[in-house]
């Protein structure tokens, strides 16, 4: 029995020592991971710095400083990290709980808003594959920030991230956000308000090998959004928004599709249902996008530098024959369903100087009830008329009559020129530009047609 007891004690001692050694090695790896993560996350406007790391046998602690500097505002958070990494974890290598706090020298309104709560808590479990399972939460709070009042309903995100930060998959939700702005002297006592509710997101993104950009899918759902302007305009309310974006790398080009739908939009007496917007960006050169993504991180906030960067490598970009396609913009009103589609594609020789008249192919197609087209035209005609006749004294009824007459004349001119086809109560058109020539509804547009088009523009 004595020898057995000694043997058991020796075995326990060996296991304990092994567990302690494993935990300490994991702790060392996590310390290296902290430094790597800080470098990876530090991209403008965010800077992450490791200020302290204390290694233990089974647990460690760390402190990092997170600085968000937009150029207009600078905000700093200090994060305390509690790290458990032994002995002999079974389900995962380690667990990290990071608690963020607003620094005391932050703007007073931020300090007050988070006086008794952490603005962010981040829990991570490091798996044996070094991937992490993450839960990020932010509490609900109310606060005043200058002339604005903010009521935040909280935030939660659960996601998985690869050890090299090249893949992220998960979801996020924000139940509600209310922003109220105090009225100024010119606002006639009318405060503005924005209320957003039911905000959720699902994502599955990854960074292809050797590339700086991300590809994959993203879905955003918003239950409702209500906006009340300061200037006394009628409130606007949107319900049932859904956006699905998908970006894929195929050989040496990147293709993106974005499909958006809105159940309803209401403003005053106007209601639009079943809004759909489907977009596509095709044949974007991966090398050009990679370089643009890499360099743009260094010049954020500099519009001129960004414009120069866009122009660099233009020959490489055009060589892939990129195309922007508006597959569909459609909506439904009391008058019926309206639909518009358009596309713009480069068809030229990228090795030669750019000739916009010959190198691009474009298409525009519309099909909608006549009252809808009249309404779209009327808004632009009204705006133009008011700018050109600032000193004219017309009441609202006279102005509406003038605008209506102008719109009718312009649409009649387009029909006579062959640009629009009127069929009962609907208006249709298909315009195509190719090889420097314009066709309207399958027929070449002559000089009279071009004059009609120009004269019909507001």
UniProtKB/TrEMBL annotation:
Source lineage: Bacteria, Pseudomonadati, Pseudomonadota, Betaproteobacteria, Burkholderiales
Name of protein: YdgA family protein
Species of the source: Comamonas squillarum
Pfam families: DUF945 (PF06097)
